[in-house]
Amino acid sequence: MRVVSDISLLPYNTFGIDAKAKLFIEYYSLDELRQVLKEHKGERILHIGQGSNLLFTQDFDGVILHSGMARARFLDDETVEAQNGLRLDDLIAQLTDMQYCGMEKLSLIPGEVGASAVQNVGAYGCEAKDVIVRVNVLDTETLDQRMMTNEECRFGYRDSIFKHELKGKCIVTSVVYHVSKGDATKTREEIIETRNGKLPKVGEVGSAGSFFMNPFVPEQQANELLQLYPDMPHFQSPQGVKIPAAWLIEQCGWKGKTHGGAQVWPKQPLVLVNANHASATEIMELAKQISDSVYDRFNIRINPEVNYI
Ligand SMILES: Cc1cc2nc3c(=O)[nH]c(=O)nc-3n(C[C@H](O)[C@H](O)[C@H](O)COP(=O)(O)OP(=O)(O)OC[C@H]3O[C@@H](n4cnc5c(N)ncnc54)[C@H](O)[C@@H]3O)c2cc1C
Question: Which residue among 27, 150, 173, 221 is buried most deeply as judged by most CB within 10 Å?
């Protein structure tokens, strides 16, 4: 196990925020994880992955936990179990090389396997929930391991039970994904090219990807808006009519706008970036200004996808 006190979290969040943590612990086995949880019972604990969906709004007066467990193994021809600390894209790259498909649409999404289940990551019409068979978790109270089926995880749009009832109560230790034999090389390459063309590259420009979630509105409100904005993109779904937040933000004139060191990414207005040593406050202020202006113009509240810590 690796234990560091008073650590800068700069290398541990893709937004590039220089917050500090009282303690940072990286564990390499489930026994070590149990030991850490026992020793730090009652303290404030945050389990992070790559920190690609976090905004540290202040120093963290507690224990930041990170998994150094990063292996994957086939359980049978159609299921692969990956440990929480493995980068999701490394897993997909390996599977693609081995001529397995099913997860390629999630290519290049930053972050680790553990968070892929917590966040139910998604892109290009595929969500983690479509390929997750089950999720193994460790109860932070009893330290027992438990297997959760896909249904029990209650996946929704960028959502799961791990963001609600089980928030802070369990740690995802591994995820079992369904895969099939097939060549996904071309799709993976195309997705990587598209993503590289429009999204900021991790390590080059600070961001957490899409800052806001796409809103869902009732049918009647969507119809009223369509009278005013006939070109408004919209998609029917069981939760209501989905309207792309990027379109709403762009209509309000935010593309490329800055606030202090924070900026609305010119190629994709759903993404806020740390363009020039932005503070978390500047990023939060910019997000609020955007959300308020969308609300004033469309009467739609857009909410952050990013986890404020
Ligand atoms: C450039 C860029 C592009 C992106 N594109 C996409 C995209 O296309 N689609 C998409 O869905 N997301 C996208 N994201 C967001 C991000 O990649 C995902 O949310 C990802 O799942 C975060 O993974 P992480 O390991 O960095 O988790 P973190 O950001 O470190 O953590 C996210 C949350 O999960 C919790 N968590 C982490 N690990 C565990 C664990 N083992 N057990 C319990 N809880 C845990 C954390 O406490 C936190 O609440 C993008 C981000 C960036 C920077």
Answer: 27
